[in-house]
Amino acid sequence: xxxxxxxxxxxxxxxxxxxxxxxxxxxxxxxxxxxxxxxxxxxxxxxxxxxxxxxxxxxxxxxxxxxxxxxxxxxxxxxxxxxxxxxxxxxxxxxxxxxxxxxxxxxxxxxxxxxxxxxxxxxxxxxxxxxxxxxxxxxxxxxxxxxxxxxxxxxxxxxxxxxxxxxxxxxxxxxxxxxxxxxxxxxxxxxxxxxxxxxxxxxxxxxxxxxxxxxxxxxxxxxxxxxxxxxxxxxxxxxxxxxxxxxxxxxxxxxxxxxxxxxxxxxxxxxxxxxxxxxxxxxxx
Length: 285
Fold this sequence. Notes:
Elements: H1 2-23, H2 42-64, H3 71-76, H4 97-112, H5 122-125, H6 128-148, H7 185-204, H8 211-232, H9 238-262, E1 266-272, E2 277-283
Antiparallel strand pairs: 1-2
């Protein structure tokens, strides 16, 4: 886990800096009515969304089918193996975990639907198909980042906090899914939806100026609340929540940014003469 966390730390710092750059990039006035901000290829985005949903379902099956934790190992586990920062997760009320899990699920579903509010804006509503496909693609990438990337629980095994609670019966401390603490998929999905909405709205209204940072600040709240309740539900440690939020926010910002840049299409030209033969390309940022 030490090697993984060192590399994860570098990754988070790099992606956060990139996201900060992307969220600050747009300048100018409000988009003209009906103007497209993003280039969404229906075949490509639709395929990513559909194939991503299928691949994500397979990944979830693999996570569910992990072998249980041997009773002798469960009985030997102690908080000494948990770093000081994460020990907050081991000071929760284990008998309130079910209630906390329900709250985190409800906020997750609400945040996943948050981008629908974008269509209250008439300019964004005119491009509803592009935005909808782009969001489906974004969440598909997020779910497969969780399910298949070397950063997710299919490759990084970490016991959930519930395993450490001796007050709980063995059947709640030894099943396979308890190996999937790192990182928080709930928080990642919530952050993806919230930051996607903030990114799209700010791109359509670049005249917000400094107010857009307030918008992105508000986008932090849903994943933060979900993260707190996932800890209370004994599902994750604080570091799992922070990493999930960073990954989800990165995807929610970067995928729309890539589509926005795609609107500035590259132009090609052929150059043919006795002195020079070749191709030229201009990409307008």
